[in-house]
Amino acid sequence: MRVGMISLGCPKNQVDAEMMLAALQADGVEIVDCVDGADAVIINTCAFIDDAKREAIENILDMVELKEEGVIRKIIVTGCLVQTQREEILAEFPEVDAVVGIGANGDILSVVKDTLAADEQIYSCPDQACMPLGNPRLLTTPEYWAYLKIADGCSNRCTFCAIPGIRGAYRSRKMEDILEEAAQLAAAGVRELILIAQDTTNYGSDLYGELRLPQLLRELCAIDGIRWIRMLYCYPDKITDELIDVMASQPKILHYMDLPLQHADNRVLRRMNRRGTIEQIRELLQKLRKAMPDIVIRTTFMTGFPGEDEDAFDNLALFVNEMEFDRMGVFTFSPQEGTPAFGMDEQVDDDVKRRRGEILMEDQYSIVQDKNLARIGKEYTVLVEEYDAYSDCYIGRTYMDAPEIDGVLYFTTDKEYEPGDFVQVMVTDLREYDLVGRDTSCLKK
Question: Which CATH class is domain 379-443?
């Protein structure tokens, strides 16, 4: 059998895809990068916002066209979109051969075999809790960095978010299983671990009755071969003093925190069902920066949430300019069926949402430029990613940049490096959001 995979959406979805690919490969299935000639193509969909749904549907349509042309045999749709729109997929895409929910991920080999043997459409949507939290993976990231999923699902119940309905309640992985996988990744050459979950800082609360992320981090730091540990998706209300102390004291843990704050107006935060006030968030940010003066904080904000009037947006804009985040993303409120915010009053016009987002990003661009100018003349450890023959320079990342999310650093050198090498680079210039530099020495893996 020859099987192709199209995985859409977030890193958590990517890890799910890697586990499915490993299960198929272990049974002798040939995994193909190009779908041409594939016996089956699996589309692992995302459904977080409307843009993600549109992307999923566009990919389904593309595969339907290839199937009609005889390029591929079977189409299997799985992932988050199935959890929210399985009836629509079944009805609107009769060309799709199998529609399976995330609870069937652990049975993907049987799904593929049954689909290839069947003459009619297959449908299976077990409970989300049936989805395995951890299994062998076929990495789709470069060999020197990898995501490490420590939990799945979410129990926060933000009023705008469909994730609890899609992925189910929060489920932490057993710590020993996480550590075993991390050790295997390190032995395979992974040097940067990136911890992910819907809410990374909530790790352990369901399984152990207390927050265990600090302990997990200390155990991960003891694994030989791992040099960088990065955390994504940290919720502000669960960042404890113990966690801050571990981050500040353990050299392997990067002073980088992805902290999705969503808004900076207390009334809007309450309507979002976000815990804590903007005053508490401000205090947390100050505490993080005091403990780690070099910390890079990435955040995301939402514009146009129901009830966001001019005063609320002004509070958000003032907060963005006051706190001067190193990395920031903005997305407009996208009403999701089945969430409390879908039917809320005081909906905001789409053009107003977009314009507010543009204002925030214009302000953020100036903030980032000022921060990057201050980095000229400073030296950073850079993880080499690739060589760009066109510009005759290497491309890498500092601790300040998460892969596939943030910027990069372009640097020139008289030496030769391999992806995964660590190099000392002096920043000499800027290129939009990215940095430019020259290497000063090499620290081998």
Answer: mainly beta
